[in-house]
């Protein structure tokens, strides 16, 4: 099937942009056949829409307390019940998805370029550059990521921004390792030797030759790590070091629901299920991306 | 044109020391095709990498076009020597179009880049200018090798190093590429160093041949000597016998 597409893209009269589009299309055709990946993508898309439209969809103000209707079980009025301050859990879940997606997106945007550049430089230059950069990576990897994030947030103060920084601090080293490993296999290829022979600068070789070839595996790795980012963010929230209490955040919601969990399961269960489904979806997307971007299929 | 004196290359220290090149010397006249033969691991490719500036830790003297070649090449140093590699599948960047692959050397050297120049370079190696818009995976092995030759020649070098340029191609394509190389040498006044394990190819292309063994030049033969099996060293006879070179040819 793929072979047919490559041949359709074949005629030499097609400009490169069209060929790029053809490659994207063929990538999409592989991805589309992956049921679990499409399911994950669907869930994440729905979540993104819900997050954007939260003020329109949410039946109640997520911060509105109502001490006459605390800890109500799920009903037609409150789909997911109310918490110990009478706030609507469903509305808080919707607003919480905003925080979660914001954290996921900001961490990915911070982490992918940093990890990529450090890893590619270490792999390409080798020698002492490699030694120094990889020892730094080892130091970060030696500490469990949640502990490192905890320490960082404890030092800087709790809050969503600091949680993002702390998670980013723990998420870049695996990406740097991956980028380095990819670069090591690329840098000995003949086309890199040819580029060195015609006098291309290291800067040009890294950004025009090495980085484009590292991108597929980096994209897969970042997508897979999004699941871990959600869990770490929720963990920080649960420990009271992420988003601060009045604001709706899934981890924080579980943390407050924990006290009443035995008698009023819905307060903790719904944010827990939300975390589960979201991180699972990112994992499914990552797995499907890995298959679709596999060069042996392309 | 090329004068190599006492070239040595070694990696590692103590027991781990390996020495791909153990002090070898030879010289190549302008416009000549000089062949280098020997079995795998004898240092043929290392020799080319040293002359081409890809290895930097060598000692000795390499003179190209009357000027000593530095270990580390920068900027315009890179224009005199270019190389064509063995593997047609690894020689081109998989995500770069042929046009980009050919304009990159011009960009690196700060030379004028134009579609006309790239079209000329493609025509010179017998490809249609429309190939500029294709990606390497849409080309056959022989076409890729032609692009690799075009890339090597676009900077107008004096010397082209050929590292088994046809060993990965099938026989009919091999002949086409060898004839193309021979024609280009005459047209552009190039000097070649051709590394190969195929004695027939070397005998066809080269005027003189060096036989290498463990990092040294064992002996130097003319192409006629090679064809008639007039060698002096036992090793060369073995090499000729194992390659089943038709002595009557």
Automatic annotation (TrEMBL), chain A:
- Mark the transmembrane ranges: 38-58, 101-125, 137-157, 191-212, 218-243, 264-285
Q: What is its main location?
A: membrane
Q: Which UniProt keywords apply?
A: Cell membrane, Membrane, Peptide transport, Protein transport, Transmembrane, Transmembrane helix, Transport
Question: What positions does the domain ABC transmembrane type-1 occupy?
Answer: 97-286
> Which InterPro entries does the record match to this protein?
BP-dependent_transpt_permease (IPR050366), MetI-like (IPR000515), MetI-like_sf (IPR035906), OppC_N (IPR025966)
A GO cellular component annotated for this chain's UniProt record is: plasma membrane
Subcellular localization, as worded in the UniProt entry: Cell membrane
User: Which family does this protein fall into?
Assistant: Belongs to the binding-protein-dependent transport system permease family.
Identification of the protein by name: ABC transporter permease
What is the native source organism of this protein?
Neorhizobium lilium
UniProtKB/TrEMBL annotation, chain B:
GO biological process terms on file: transmembrane transport
Main localization (coarse): membrane
Q: Would you say which domain of life the source belongs to?
A: Bacteria
Which stretches make up the ABC transporter domain?
2-239
The record's catalysed reaction(s) read: glutathione(out) + ATP + H2O = glutathione(in) + ADP + phosphate + H(+)
Membrane topology value: Peripheral membrane protein
In its keyword annotation, does this UniProt entry include Ribonucleoprotein? no
* Catalytic EC class: translocase
EC number per UniProt: 7.4.2.10
**Location in or out of the cell:** Cell inner membrane; Membrane
Entry-linked InterPro entries: AAA+_ATPase (IPR003593), ABC_transp_ATP-bind (IPR050319), ABC_transporter-like_ATP-bd (IPR003439), ABC_transporter-like_CS (IPR017871), P-loop_NTPase (IPR027417)
Q: Which GO terms describe its molecular function?
A: ATP binding; ATP hydrolysis activity
Write out the entry's keywords from A to Z.
Answer: ATP-binding, Cell inner membrane, Cell membrane, Membrane, Nucleotide-binding, Translocase, Transport
An example of a Gene Ontology cellular component annotation for this protein is:
plasma membrane
Q: Which Pfam families match?
A: ABC_tran
Family of the protein in this entry? Belongs to the ABC transporter superfamily. Glutathione importer (TC 3.A.1.5.11) family.
How would you summarize the oligomeric state and partners of this protein?
The complex is composed of two ATP-binding proteins (GsiA), two transmembrane proteins (GsiC and GsiD) and a solute-binding protein (GsiB).
| Reported function | Part of the ABC transporter complex GsiABCD involved in glutathione import. Responsible for energy coupling to the transport system.
- The name of this protein is Glutathione import ATP-binding protein GsiA
């Amino acid at each position: 099937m793929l072979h047919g597409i490559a041949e359709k893209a074949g005629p030499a009269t097609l400009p490169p942009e069209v060929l790029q589009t053809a490659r994207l299309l063929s990538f999409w055709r592989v991805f589309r056949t992956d049921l679990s990946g499409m399911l994950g993508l669907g869930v994440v898309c729905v979540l993104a829409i819900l997050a954007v439209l939260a003020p329109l969809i949410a039946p109640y103000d997520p911060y509105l307390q109502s001490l006459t209707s605390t800890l109500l079980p799920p009903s037609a009025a409150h789909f997911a019940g109310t918490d110990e301050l009478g706030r609507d859990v469903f509305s808080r879940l919707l607003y919480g998805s905003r925080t979660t997606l914001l954290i996921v997106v900001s961490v990915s945007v911070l982490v992918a370029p940093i990890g990529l550049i450090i890893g590619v430089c270490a792999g390409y230059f080798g020698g002492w550059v490699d030694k120094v950069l990889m020892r730094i990576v080892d130091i970060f990897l030696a500490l469990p990521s949640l502990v490192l994030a905890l320490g960082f947030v404890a030092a800087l103060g709790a809050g969503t921004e600091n949680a993002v920084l702390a998670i980013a601090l723990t998420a870049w080293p695996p990406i740097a390792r991956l980028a380095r490993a990819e670069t090591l296999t690329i840098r000995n290829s003949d086309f890199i030797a040819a580029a060195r022979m015609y006098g291309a600068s290291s800067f040009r070789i890294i950004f025009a030759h090495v980085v484009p070839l590292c991108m597929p595996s980096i994209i897969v790795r970042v997508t897979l790590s999004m699941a871990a980012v959600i869990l770490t963010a929720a963990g920080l929230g649960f420990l009271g070091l992420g988003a601060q209490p009045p604001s709706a955040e899934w981890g924080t919601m579980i943390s407050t629901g924990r006290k009443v969990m035995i008698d009023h399961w819905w307060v903790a269960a719904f944010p827990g299920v939300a975390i589960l489904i979201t991180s699972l979806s990112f994992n499914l997307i990552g797995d499907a991306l890995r298959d679709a971007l596999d060069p042996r299929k392309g | 044109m090329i004068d190599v004196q006492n070239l040595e290359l070694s990696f590692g220290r103590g027991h781990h020391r390996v020495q791909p090149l153990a002090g070898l010397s030879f010289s190549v006249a302008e416009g000549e095709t000089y062949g280098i033969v020997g079995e795998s691991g004898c240092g043929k490719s290392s020799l080319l990498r040293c002359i081409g500036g890809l290895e930097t830790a060598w000692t000795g003297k390499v003179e190209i076009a009357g000027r000593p070649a530095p270990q580390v090449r920068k900027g315009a140093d890179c224009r005199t020597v270019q190389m064509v590699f063995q593997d047609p599948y690894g020689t081109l960047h998989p995500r770069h179009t042929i046009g980009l692959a050919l304009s990159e050397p011009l960009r690196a050297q700060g030379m004028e880049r134009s579609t006309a120049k790239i079209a000329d370079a493609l025509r010179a190696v017998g490809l249609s200018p429309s190939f500029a818009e294709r990606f390497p995976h849409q080309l056959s092995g022989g076409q890729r090798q032609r692009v690799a030759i075009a890339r090597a020649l676009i900077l107008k070098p004096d010397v082209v190093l050929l590292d088994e340029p046809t060993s990965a191609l099938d026989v009919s394509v091999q002949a086409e590429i060898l004839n193309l190389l021979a024609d280009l040498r005459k047209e552009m006044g190039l000097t070649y160093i051709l590394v190969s394990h195929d004695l027939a190819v070397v005998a066809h292309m080269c005027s003189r041949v060096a036989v290498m063994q463990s990092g040294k030049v064992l002996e130097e033969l003319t192409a006629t000597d090679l064809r008639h099996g007039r060698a002096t060293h036992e090793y060369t006879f073995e090499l000729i016998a194992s390659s089943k070179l038709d002595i009557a040819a």
